[in-house]
Amino acid sequence: MIQAILVFNNHGKPRLVRFYQRFPEEIQQQIVRETFHLVLKRDDNICNFLEGGSLIGGPDYKLIYRHYATLYFVFCVDSSESELGILDLIQVFVETLDKCFENVCELDLIFHMDKVHYILQEVVMGGMVLETNMNEIVAQIEAQNRLEKSEGGLSAAPARAVSAVKNINLPEIPRNINIGDLNIKVPNLSQFV
Amino acid sequence: MSDIVEKTLTALPGLFLQNQSVGGPAGVKTSFSSRLGGLVRGITALTSKHEEEKLIQQELSNLKATVSAPTTTLKIMKECMVRLIYCEMLGYDASFGYIHAIKLAQQGNLLEKRVGYLAVSLFLHENHELLLLLVNTVVKDLQSTNLVEVCMALTIVSQIFPREMIPAVLPLIEDKLQHSKEIIRRKAVLALYKFHLIAPNQVQHIHIKFRKALCDRDVGVMAASLHIYFRMIKENSSGYKDLTGSFVTILKQVVGGKLPVDFNYHSVPAPWLQIQLLRILGLLGKDDQRTSELMYDVLDESLRRAELNHNVTYAILFECVHTVYSIYPKSELLEKAAKCIGKFVLSPKINLKYLGLKALTYVIQQDPTLALQHQMTIIECLDHPDPIIKRETLELLYRITNAQNITVIVQKMLEYLHQSKEEYIIVNLVGKIAELAEKYAPDNAWFIQTMNAVFSVGGDVMHPDIPNNFMRLLAEGFDDETEDQQLRLYAVQSYLTLLDVENVFYPQKFLQVMSWVSEVH
Description:
Chain B: Belongs to the adaptor complexes large subunit family. The complex is a heterodimer. Chain A is α+β, with helices and mostly antiparallel strands. Chain A has six helices and seven strands. By secondary structure, chain B is mostly helical. Chain B is built from 28 helices and two strands.
């Protein structure tokens, strides 16, 4: 079971915090800080598994993390999860974010934090892995996104009209009409005398 | 498309916005959707925690005014809610917003409802009194014809739901197990799993339905049911031995590539599913020859098939090896598994080395020769730059310590201890060293020296049993009276030497031990 999923940047600022086990608010903050310090000490070419630290439950729990550019993705799991499996799950999650946001970067996570949560909800539900196929996850999110388009209201009407017209397949009107060489056979008229 | 048409169409939205007053919906939308952006930009520009606090408190008081105002629309509430989530994530209290989150989920349209549910799942906890207000909304959404609403309700149920209200939603969720859409069935299974975790006796009667989920025509639903079965089998494996055949069949089909291509991950068929099944089989076959015999074929097949080099294949291999060693032993399988472990330990990839060591630790009781085979690598790992690898090696060595190698091993452990700052590591290691020292100490001098080192590092954080046992040992002694006297004498002498050293502080417990021993003897 997954106990918590944390995403923070190289300075320890939290970008996504989801706990699947109940912790009081101050403890949650402490866990984020402690995890950050544990993970910061790690160089880049050593293993991606760590003991969970004293706050997050003890020897049965592990931190599995991956470092992408300015962000750390940390999954805190118990012994029922496979370490390498979770490592690949993090990869799937990040690839899905990349697909949904088109070249995702830290700014996307900050400004669209709620969207990231919705994507995560399709991957992990209640601490259990729900879906591991990126295309399936994206399909669920698109179903929700279609709601957004249909709920745009009056202010979205012009934008919708524009995109609707842009998407019409109008035939290409040629700019230069090139008739090409015509070969008209002129009959051989007899001479006039 | 003609240029003119293009230009007209792009100008249209601008024309619309110009005609609307600031109070109109479009104007408000743009100014609010950039509010979160503004807040975040404001915070990033600050350098001190104090300034951040000020900014956030100001933001929170603005938000408080907005959410409490009767004229605030749900749309605005939605934008405010996202900012409240952001503030709470940074650790600031926004409890004034909790009730509004619930209202948003109750009254909002689909998008607003989604934010409301998200906020509730992040803000509240299972025993929160406000949570009861959400139950009616959940019940309503579970019965909705809109599938997205049903999904949202199932998600919130699996994340956070008051235990006393389970009976209110249980029949509705049970119903969803037969829904035509696969995703709904799958989420319903996980929601029921959550109920099983928090109130197992309430879901006793639907175990039959779990079996149906296991045989579901959709792989996703079957995979979800495995979470439940893993848990239930872990608690009581004997009740589910009859399902072994089913699990073996499913695994055979997966490994044999019978699943649709969608389920492949980097050309490996459904790896997470394989891992889950292997774990379940490991639990079922433990100490049970007849059940284990059913699995030997498929385990052999899995070991053979996992020949590719992707990360996730190693994950499957590791689980396979683990399962082979958990169940009733079969020599050919054990041989193959041992070879696998060897490859892991010798791998240059650090993650695999770590897992190889972990596997050796697990295997060591059953097959001590395996560790001997890889002695050189293990010794190299002791000096590995990665502290996690070092720790895992020490774990392994702890299990193969005997009277011959104890001095070397304990020395390495003490070295590691001196570098360690984390409390839980110190506690753990100190306990191990004390145990080993008591069991295998070659002579008195070494024993006392080691215990002194243990006390000075472990001091105040170690388990109280350690000094107690030590003092009892000195008090009761061994059979030989002169031997005991020598031991105590040596102890006292060593303490005097230590106390002579200037500018060194010893932990409280250590001083207590010293004074007790010196007084009594």
